[in-house]
Design brief:
The structure is a single chain. The chain folds into two domains: 60 residues, no CATH class; 111 residues, Transcriptional coactivator/pterin dehydratase (Gyrase A, domain 2), CATH 3.30.1360.20. By secondary structure, the chain is an alpha+beta fold. The structure holds the ligand C[C@H](O)[C@H](O)[C@H]1CNC2=NC(N)=NC(=O)C2=N1. The site of the ligand C[C@H](O)[C@H](O)[C@H]1CNC2=NC(N)=NC(=O)C2=N1 has 9 residues, from loops. Pfam families: Pterin_4a.
Length: 188
């Protein structure tokens, strides 16, 4: 059964809807009457549902790169900050396409590699990444090895592991248009 039909009875059972049901459904459906990914935002903002990102009325919602990249890194100098568990990291890693979870010296890190067209294109890539990092106040480790192998590692130095900041930064790096800097053909 189409999921909107399954959702509908629960929405209709809201005792005090804050928006007319008709306009709610207009927003939930795309221009061709199809659902779109904005459903999570619309439901939580318009209907004031729970802020739990993963479950709206027991309805599994989406968490994409876009969710993370819409967030902002927080300063890492808080005493309350703790590294996330490996289990949480394994769940979040699926939201940042192209990034791997690695463990170095017992510390979890995010890692992504690219092959660039030239050494200077590698530096250019770093400049784009640096601009994002500066805007976020969260900084990756940058490696350029063997003239065209770029590797970026992200972790939260202050806690010796991963925090949501790292995933936010990775998602924002994924949002950069870097294709003109990258080598097209796979290395021999
Ligand atoms: C106050 C400020 O957030 C911190 O000093 C930041 C700066 N950038 C940082 N970047 C990373 N990756 N880890 C940190 O612990 C860190 N600390």
């Amino acid at each position: 059964m189409n999921r909107w039909f399954r959702l509908q009875p629960r929405l209709l059972s809201l005792s005090k809807p804050q928006v007319p049901i008709v306009s709610l459904f207009k927003n939930l459906l795309g221009p061709h009457g199809r659902s779109n990914i904005r459903v999570t935002n619309i439901l939580s903002v318009r209907v004031g549902l729970s802020s739990n990102r993963n479950s709206v009325y027991g309805f599994r919602t989406f968490c994409t790169d876009k969710d993370l990249s819409a967030k902002k890194c927080v300063p890492c100098n808080s005493k309350d900050m703790r590294p996330m568990t490996e289990q949480s990291a394994n769940e979040l890693i699926t939201k940042v396409v192209g990034w791997d979870l690695v463990k170095e010296d017992g510390k979890l890190k995010l890692s992504r590699s690219w092959k660039v067209k030239s050494f200077t294109k590698g530096l250019e890539l770093f400049k784009h990444v640096a601009d994002v990092a500066e805007a976020e106040g969260h900084h990756p480790d940058l490696h350029l090895v063997g003239w065209n192998n770029v590797k970026i590692e992200i972790w939260t130095h202050a806690v010796g592991g991963l925090t949501e900041n790292d995933f936010i930064l990775a998602a924002k790096i994924n949002g950069l248009d870097l294709h003109h800097l990258l080598r097209k053909k796979p290395a021999a």
